[in-house]
């Protein structure tokens, strides 16, 4: 088993006639290898939501976001999520499938595996910030390009954040007073006519 991370998602434009669906790209930094899980746009959106969960009063809560707290209340420790390949249904030419497992340990007991789909397992791992492991046999794609792009993007974001912090640190109360004095009468902000 190798630790993997969610590297990105892809969506096929609806106007294209193709059997390929939307999907997720997962990979191992250590091995620079990865794999693709085909899924739906809805599942991709749910995974994005799980990465930054916001509690909206009155909205239904998804099992993948609440299973962790419930198991912890029962005394279980969330250990990891595992992604394992399984053989396809006979007669289906869709390639191999990926089965997800949430591995938990109850007090003084051996770890137990709770089966779920791969996309549900990814949601649980992201929402509860637990490691995501995949079978080495799944890691068949070279994902070094994705890792380089992620590192470049992270460096760029960090530089922009540093530049903004530096700007904010240099703003003085006098700058605000000058801005308010120079603003046209009756305007509500910098974009007002």
Quick take:
By secondary structure, the protein is of the alpha+beta class.
Q: Please tell me how large the radius of gyration is.
A: 23 Å
Strand adjacency order, main sheet: 1-8-5-6-7
Q: Give a short account of the largest sheet.
A: 5 strands, mixed
The SSE order reads EEEEHHEEEHEEHH
- DSSP strand count: 9
Poorly predicted spans? none
Mean pLDDT: 80
Instruction: Note the beta-strand portion.
Output: 25-35%
Compute the separation of the termini in Å: 61 Å
**Helix content bin:** 25-40%
Described by the principal axes of the CA atoms, the overall outline is extended
Protein model, in words:
By secondary structure, the chain is α+β, with helices and mostly antiparallel strands. 36% of the residues lie in helices and 26% in strands. The protein contains 5 helices and 9 strands. The strands form 2 sheets. It has a 5-stranded mixed sheet. Strand 6 and strand 7 form a beta hairpin. Helix 1 (41-51) runs parallel beside helix 3 and helix 2 (63-73) crosses helix 3. The radius of gyration is 23 Å and the shape is extended. The model has no long low-confidence stretch (mean pLDDT 80).
Features:
193 residues; alpha+beta; five-stranded mixed beta sheet; four-stranded antiparallel beta sheet; 5 helices; 36% helix; extended
SSE diagram, text form:
Elements: E1 2-3, E2 5-10, E3 23-28, E4 33-38, H1 41-51, H2 63-73, E5 77-86, E6 97-105, E7 111-117, H3 118-128, E8 132-134, E9 141-142, H4 144-170, H5 173-182
Parallel strand pairs: 5-8
Antiparallel strand pairs: 1-8, 2-3, 3-4, 4-9, 5-6, 6-7
Helix pairs in contact: 1-3, 2-3
């Amino acid at each position: 088993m190798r630790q993997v991370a969610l590297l990105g998602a892809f969506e096929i434009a609806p106007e294209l006639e193709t059997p390929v669906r939307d999907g997720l790209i997962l990979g191992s930094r250590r091995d620079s290898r990865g794999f693709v899980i085909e899924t739906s746009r809805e599942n991709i959106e749910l995974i994005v939501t799980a990465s930054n969960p916001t509690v909206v009063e009155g909205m239904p809560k998804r099992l993948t976001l609440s299973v962790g707290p419930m198991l912890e209340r029962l005394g279980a420790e969330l250990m990891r999520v595992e992604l394992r390949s399984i053989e396809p249904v006979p007669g289906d030419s869709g390639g191999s499938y990926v089965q997800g497992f949430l591995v938990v340990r109850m007090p003084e007991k051996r770890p137990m595996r709770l089966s779920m789909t791969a996309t549900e397992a990814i949601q649980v791992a992201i929402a509860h910030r637990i490691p995501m492991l995949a079978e080495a046999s799944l890691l068949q794609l070279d994902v070094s390009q994705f890792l380089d792009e992620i590192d470049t993007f992270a460096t760029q974001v960090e530089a922009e954040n540093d530049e903004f912090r530096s700007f904010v640190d240099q703003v003085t109360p006098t700058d605000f007073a000058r801005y308010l004095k120079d603003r046209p009468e009756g305007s509500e902000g910098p974009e007002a006519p």
